[in-house]
Amino acid sequence: MADKDAGHSMFGLNDDEPTRQVPDPTPTQGTTQPGAPQYVYAQQPPQPAPASGGKMLQWLVVVLAVLAVANLALVLVGRSQFSDFATKQADSINLLTRRMDSSDERYAQLRGQFQVTSEKLGLTQQELSRAHELAQQVQQQQQTAVKQLNQAIAQKASAEDVNKLQSESNEKIGGLSTDLQGTKQDLANTKSEFTNALTGTKGELNGAIARTHDELVALAHKSDRDYFEFSLPRKKAQQKVGTVTVQLEKTDPKRNVFSVYLSFDDKMTERSNKAMNEPLYFYVQGASTALELVVNKLGKDTISGYISTPKGFFPTTASVLQSRPGA
Questions:
Q1: Burial class (CB in 10 A: 0-12, 13-18, 19+), 106
Q2: What CA–CA distance (Å, rounded) separates 42 from 16?
Q3: Is the pTM here over 0.90, yes or no?
Q4: Bridge-partner residues for 230, per DSSP?
Q5: Long-range contacts made by residues 11-20, C-beta under 8 angstroms, separation at least 24?
Q6: d(Cα 220, Cα 228) in Å, to the nearest integer?
Q7: Are the CB atoms for 230 and 306 separated by under 8 Å?
Q8: Alpha helices, DSSP H, located in the chain
Q9: Longest Cα pair distance anywhere in the chain, in angstroms?
Q10: Are 256 and 275 in contact (CB under 8 A)?
Q11: Quick one: average pLDDT of 280-292?
Q12: pLDDT value at position 48?
């Protein structure tokens, strides 16, 4: 027992751990010689398995980090592409808006000119409707005549009846043709009058341009329109004439062109690179004809001119004749 304790103490083992004694390799007769050393073998504790789970966790963290960086890159690229797309869409919308404003201004000019022409001519649709009705009557008479001739031939009517029927049809058709010819002549005359009236209207709107104050006073005396002078001494300067506000944007004295903003009917429109003494037409709500703006003096960052309106359209604003009664 003392040897056993000494063996345990020698190998640092606890008393509770199992031990196995191995007999002396040279026993005699199954007996142990006194004083012979005894050998005790202790079992080595099991070694822990390598920590493969830690490496797996490290690889998983690396993969997640790579995926996070990739997702962040995709988000940044998508945001940049969306920003570019939004910018392009905004530019397209602005271009369409400018085109719509330009179309509205052109429509206002054409509408004003056509309204002036229509009022001078007093043209109605009565003559055109009459011509259309006569054409329909001629067509119906021709169809009726052909139908009657076919019926007469089918019934083997006498040649006398056929000739009589054909003569009556020719007379009716001839009368309608005469009416139609007269209507065509009336339409030709109306077209000629319309062309002459349109030419006169263009002359009235485009030809009567006042280049000085004295010419403007003379024009106001002989015209049935009102004239209002304005003067803009610098860039961004603006002046209100009746319900229209004129604001100077820029001038180019070398080319004799200017750009202004016109504000009326709760909207603002730009007129760019307009020539001096060139009539600029625009239509204001409630006006019977188009309004006309003319710049007859142009310098560096300064313009002056006048606005022409239908008679009495700006009743509370002094016209060129009212501001200088003795002129």
A1: exposed
A2: 12
A3: no
A4: 305
A5: 11/40, 11/42, 13/42, 17/42, 17/43, 18/43
A6: 10
A7: yes
A8: 2-11, 52-121, 126-154, 159-202, 213-222, 320-323
A9: 174
A10: yes
A11: 93
A12: 57
Residue 195 burial (CB count, 10 A): 10
What separation in angstroms does the CA of 292 have from each of 35, 103, 320? 140, 18, 15
Q: State both tokens at 6.
A: 């000494």
CB 249 within 8 A of CB 235: yes
Q: d(Cα 237, Cα 251) in Å, to the nearest integer?
A: 12
Q: CA 208, CA 227: separation in Å to the nearest integer?
A: 12
156 or 183: whose pLDDT is higher? 183
The CA distance from 196 to 79, in Å, is 63
Per-residue pLDDT tens over the stretch 101-110? 666 666 666 6
Above 70 in pLDDT, residue 278?
yes
Contact 300, 119 (CB under 8 A): no
**In whole angstroms, what separates CA 69 from the centre of its chain?**
40
Sign of CA dihedral 110, 115, 120, 121: positive
Three-state DSSP at 27 gives coil
| 243 pLDDT higher than 50 | yes
